[in-house]
Amino acid sequence: MIPEDNLPYLFFNSLVSVLCIISSYYYLYIASFRYDSKFESESAGFTTMIIFESVFFVHMMLQFILEYRIEDKNETIKNIIDIALNYLYTGFIFDLIPLLPF
Predict the structure, then answer these.
(1) Which long-range contacts (CB under 8 A, 24 or more apart) does 25-34 make?
(2) In the predicted model, what is the mean pLDDT of residues 32-56?
(3) Number of neighbours of residue 4 by Cβ within 10 angstroms
(4) What b/e sequence results for 36-61 when a residue is b if at least 16 CB atoms lie within 10 Å of its CB, and e otherwise?
């Protein structure tokens, strides 16, 4: 289990937030100016998109083992099944949608 106050995780989470902002502008640029049906898998643009998607996928997978706190009881949940179910019911869909190809 990863504690919610784990310093490397907090750094990675900050990195994901920054990459989310950068990727939003990058995808907008690709959609507006550079997209064509022959977007080559060897291009730097394709590699950049794969890097973004990979980081977001790793972040999504880490959410299944990240402890969370019940605020009403001030209790930390460390059971992996409870953590996974909580994530599936609360934030999984919001993390999955950006990873789906369009």
Answers:
(1) 26/52
(2) 78
(3) 14
(4) eeeeeeeeeeeeebeebeebbeebbe
Rounded-to-integer distance, Cα 98 and Cα 96, Å: 6
In whole angstroms, what is the distance from residue 29 CA to residue 27 CA? 5
Contact (CB, 8 A) for 66 and 8: no
Rounded Cα–Cα distance for residues 31 and 29 (Å): 5
**Tally of CB atoms within 10 A around 3:** 11
CA distance 84 to 79: 9
**What does the alpha-carbon distance between residue 87 and residue 102 come to, in Å, rounded to a whole number?**
24
Are 70 and 34 spatial neighbours (Cβ–Cβ below 8 Å)?
Answer: no
- Which pLDDT score is estimated for 61? 95
